[in-house]
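so my prof wants the structure for this chain in the tokens format not the other one, which i didnt know existed until like an hour ago. anyway here's the sequence
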Amino acid sequence: MRKFIFLFVCQLIMIAVFAQAGKYAGTKKSMIGKVFIETTELSQLKGWTQFEGGVVSKLDEPEMILVHVFKKGTTVLVFFSIKEDTASDKLLICDVLEVTGVQKGWEIRSSFCRQNKVENSFIVVWGKITTNEFMNIIKKAWIFNRDKRRIEIIPVKGIDCENIGC
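here's what i got, hopefully its the right format
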């Protein structure tokens, strides 16, 4: 009986740990775990337009983490991928964020964002477009937790994004 209870508790812990990836993936949850070299290989992105993306980890780190942002209508898709072996071209999709209903005047931003005035390239923001130096009207914000390799929602207080070129 003790073994059964122990195994049951272990199973619950495993579910709690691994069930979180894809929490915000919406209809694109099947992308998690896909391996690719170029985003054009991903059939789930057919009809989507690449909006922004790039390397978010420091270039001297052993694994390279990238963010990719695609748009189709009022839906924006953000996913983080990892190149675990810098000698390889293969990327692994760790987690996906699907944001629906992004209306005109609002955008999803994955670059030049800060939390309490400290830049953090792992933050993704849904904010109101502005010509001010910083976008600071924020509807929602998420962060890629590199230890857990998943996207988590964070409070919007203290979050802003620099408007480069304004």
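also thought this was worth mentioning. Residues 6-19 have pLDDT under 50 and may be disordered.
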